[in-house]
């Protein structure tokens, strides 16, 4: 049966999403659940990541399926929320059968959002709430969950940035569905690859117009200073993938980030992409995997644009929306 498309990662069978949002601390977390387990992959391109259990997503590990991915604000402090997601799933009897208990496998990654609003981070209970709120409905986008405190365009300092957020999208072709969910908290500008125009980014403090971060660097300006940077992505598909193929798809997801964020993967980013494959059966042929990679890049591009277009002004920063 063909599922209806809602342009969201939850168009992929077996994927649910829930948010927990702290509107006062301007932070939050997002749980992407796959209760029946999914073959996972990961690719970390940022030199400054904050992650948990990414090694279980790589080939050659005992556990070959994960049960959720947690995306969190709060920098390294926010990783605590992933334990809350795991606790909720354990209460439901979901997890790897470790004989004496079922242990949910929950990789996670964080963004640095401590500079917007009061220094705050999602804790274990926030992770529980995000997991409890998860459903197969199209998730809310913009300044929610892990995207609550996200900002983009730090080239001219955080005070001249634009509000970032969380976005999702999906694409279907060749009998497979690929969806993406992206938390956009980039140091660079967000561009529409179709037009080349800047959608959100660093703003000229004199005029308020977008300053073009790459143009400034090419003109001799210093690169973005250390700050609240990192973009996170989850790509899900109902296709069948081996662990090796899932890791390849995660690496291709970064092409979608590089096409929409300039500059991407700076020395102060912790850019991380996960893959979740919920299908069962035989792995795809190389040509089929190439199609999935193209779909993944397209979904990540659109989810990135949706993140900033759904964002709202917060913390004294304007938003593209």
Explained architecture:
By secondary structure, the protein is an alpha+beta fold. It has a single domain, classed as L-amino peptidase D-ALA esterase/amidase, CATH 3.60.70.12. The protein has five helices and 16 strands. The strands form four sheets. Strands 1, 2, 3, 4, 7, 10, 11, 14 and 16 form a nine-stranded mixed beta sheet that branches.
What is the compact description of this entry?
The protein has 321 residues and is of the alpha+beta class.
Q: Which short descriptors sum up this protein?
A:
321 residues; 5 helices; alpha+beta; globular; nine-stranded mixed beta sheet; three-stranded antiparallel beta sheet; L-amino peptidase D-ALA esterase/amidase
Shape: globular
How would you classify the helix and strand content by structural class?
A: alpha+beta
Per DSSP, what share of the residues sits in E-state strands of 2 or more residues? 25-35%
CATH class: Alpha Beta
Could you say what the CATH topology is called?
L-amino peptidase D-ALA esterase/amidase
The CATH architecture designation is: 4-Layer Sandwich
Contiguous helical run count: 5
**What gyration radius follows from the Cα positions, in whole Å?**
18 Å
Distance between the termini: 36 Å
Helix content: 10-25%
Residue runs with pLDDT of under 50 for 5 or more positions: none
The name of the CATH superfamily reads: L-amino peptidase D-ALA esterase/amidase
Task: Say how many strands there are.
Answer: 16
């Amino acid at each position: 049966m063909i599922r209806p498309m809602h342009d969201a990662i939850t168009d992929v069978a077996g994927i649910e999403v829930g948010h927990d949002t702290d509107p006062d601390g301007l932070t939050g977390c997002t749980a992407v659940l796959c209760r029946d387990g999914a073959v996972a992959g990961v690719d970390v391109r940022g030199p400054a990541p904050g992650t948990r259990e990414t090694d279980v997503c790589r080939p050659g590990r005992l556990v070959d399926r994960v049960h959720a991915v947690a995306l969190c604000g709060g920098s390294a402090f926010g990783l605590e929320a992933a334990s809350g997601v795991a606790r909720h799933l354990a209460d439901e009897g979901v997890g790897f059968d470790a004989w004496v208990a079922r242990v949910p496998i929950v990789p996670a990654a964080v963004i640095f959002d401590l500079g917007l609003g009061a220094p705050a981070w999602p804790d274990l209970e926030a992770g529980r709430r995000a997991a409890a709120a998860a459903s197969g409905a199209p998730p809310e986008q913009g300044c929610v969950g892990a995207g609550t405190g996200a900002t983009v365009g730090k080239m001219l300092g955080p005070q001249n940035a634009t509000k970032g957020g969380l976005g999702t999208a999906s694409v279907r072709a060749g009998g497979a569905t690929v969806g993406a969910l992206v938390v956009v908290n980039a140091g660079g500008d967000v561009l529409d690859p179709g037009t080349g125009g800047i959608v959100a980014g660093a703003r000229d403090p004199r005029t308020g117009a977008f300053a073009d971060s790459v143009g400034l660097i090419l003109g001799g300006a210093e690169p973005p200073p250390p700050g609240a940077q990192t973009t996170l992505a989850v790509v899900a598909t109902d296709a069948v993938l081996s662990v090796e193929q899932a890791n390849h798809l995660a690496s291709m997801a970064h092409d979608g980030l590089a096409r929409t964020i300039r500059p991407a993967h700076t020395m102060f980013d912790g850019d991380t992409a996960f893959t979740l494959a919920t299908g069962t059966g035989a792995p795809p042929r190389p040509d089929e995997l190439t199609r999935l990679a193209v779909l993944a890049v397209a979904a990540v591009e659109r989810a990135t644009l949706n993140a900033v277009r759904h964002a709202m002004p917060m913390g004294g920063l304007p938003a593209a929306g």
